[in-house]
Amino acid sequence: MTLATKIFPKQIFVDEEGKATNIKLFSFSRPHMRAMHLSWLSFFIAFIGWFAIPPLMPTIKADLKLTPSQIADSNLTSVSATILARLIIGPLCDRYGPRKAMVGLLLLGSITIGSAGLASDAKGLIIVRFFIGIVGAAFVPCQYWASQMFSYNIVGTANAICGGFGNMGAGVSYFLVPLIYNAIAIGLPPHQAWRVTFVVLACLCILMAAADYFLGDDCPGATWKSRTSSLERHDVEMHGLPQTASDCDPIQTGELADEKPFSPHETSISTVSAPDPSPSAVVDLLSQFKNPAVLILMIQYGCSFGLELAVDNMIGQFFYEHFGLSQTTSGMLGSIFGLMNLFSRASGGMLADYVNTLIGEGVQGRMLVHFTILMLEGIFLIGLSFAIGSLGSTIAVLVLFSYFVQAGCGTTFSIVPFANPKSMGSIYGLVGAGGSIGSIVFNYIFKVYGTNYVDAFRVIGYVALSATLLTLLLKIQNRMLLGLVFKKLNS
Fold it and tell me: What is the per-residue burial (b if ≥16 Cβ within 10 Å, else e) of 5-43?
């Protein structure tokens, strides 16, 4: 089965637990594809609300009389609450299911986003941006939801598509939010129009939460409690660790040995008991810090998604101040960065899955793609520091950098599901929190360097390149990337 037929098949095939082994992208059928589209749409709407303030920053800055330092501080706080929220939401996904966790986040987010207009000074803006950051945790149930619906051979691609399409919300916010504001400003003065804009965005969150609750399913079974993980099912006997698609999936010869066309009436997994929940979600969460692979993936996700968030916060202001463009034009150009997620993050996950099936060495194929993508991300980020002398060269290099930083998010989460499937919620939360921590670090670097964008981009590029080298220490399923290199050299 080729990659194309896995994404654009005539029908959905499932494994023995009811998880899809392929993706029918243009279908909204229940449960697999409907859950997939609801998951990325939810994250998409959450992302628009999360990053709705930066596109309107010139108007808000004038209204609240903000200084550059105060704007930088608000950028920092916008991702601070996300760290704690992502750590909490992971275990909640384990307990209640990703659908209900997503619904709760969107409803809570609607309150915080709708309250943005209450800010009347810099302190108020910093406070509301802190609480708006909670909705950024929607990434965790988004990825968790996809992992529950798709089998081990295609989970990297599914996660990358959901994460990438969801991340597009940042890019869309840069042209959608100003358009909403401009429409409202026809009848209201600017200081009221930007406040009403956030009420509109809050309503979008409520509508999306309702769609998730009434239209979606947590998993391909009757209830959330009646489930198991295809990642856990394929254990390596001598190590007690899960296998990857390349280990146990006869993908080179066609379809999976145990896959079959999906029937909505099947209930085969309803008899499979879910793993017993841990006695303490906190203990389970803390225990994951003993796993070096989790720590490495946290750092690398900080240098991919965290860096993406930091650039999302400043890119519109960068075009506005550095090139003297209007708020609307700056927003349109800034949207290029986020809109690249339409294909960039998904292509990272797809490429990782594809190369892994070709190499057939555990997750080492995914590690190889991951290492290459992160290295190119760092190179083009450093290149961006040399290109910002002109608008044309800036846009050209920005497109290249944005592709690789977003593809790096996809390759990261092509590996994450295999770190420890029995604690998937905790690990998703930790790695997701790593992205938010990275965002704080990079937002702070942008604050320190101020309008000295040349040095800021260059320093961050060196940090990203350094994090790439950690892939050489990454050990998943007792296999490392260096093992693949030595094997190929000796063969």
Answer: ebbebeebbbbbbbbbbbbbeebeeebbbbbbbbbbbbb
What pLDDT does 1 receive? 56
Q: Report which of 83, 20, 134, 114 is spatially closest to residue 285, judged by C-alpha positions.
A: 83
Q: Calculate the alpha carbon distances from 166 to 374, 409, 436 in Å.
A: 21, 12, 16
Strand, helix or coil for residue 341 = helix
Q: Quote the distance between the C-alpha of residue 415 and its chain's center.
A: 13
Enclosing H/E stretch for 161: helix 155-185
pLDDT of 244 strictly over 90: no
What is the token pair recorded at 101?
Answer: 């966790």
Q: Is the distance from CB of 217 to CB of 29 less than 8 angstroms?
A: no
How far is the C-alpha of 85 from the C-alpha of 172, rounded, in Å?
24
- Count how many residues are written for the chain: 491
Q: For residue 485, what are the contacts with CB-CB under 8 A and spacing of at least 6?
A: none
Write phi, then psi, for 475 (nearest 5 degrees). Answer: -125, 115
**b/e 373-382 (16+ beta carbons within 10 angstroms → b):** bbbbbbbbbb
Q: How far, rounded to the nearest angstrom, does the alpha carbon of residue 165 sit from its chain's CA centroid?
A: 9
pLDDT in tens, 438-457: 999 999 999 999 989 999 99
Three-class secondary structure of residue 235 per DSSP: strand
The partner residues of 404 in beta bridges, in order of sequence, read none
Place of tokens 């604690």: 423
At how many degrees (to 10) do helices 424-449 and 68-77 cross? 170
Whole-prediction pTM value? 0.78
265 by Cβ neighbours in 10 Å (0-12 / 13-18 / 19+) ranks as exposed
Residue 49 one-letter amino acid: G
For 239, counting Cβ atoms within 10 Å of its Cβ (0-12 exposed, 13-18 middle, 19+ buried), the class is exposed
State the amino acid at position 310 in one-letter form: A
Compute the distance between CA of residue 108 and CA of residue 97 in angstroms, rounded to an integer.
Answer: 17
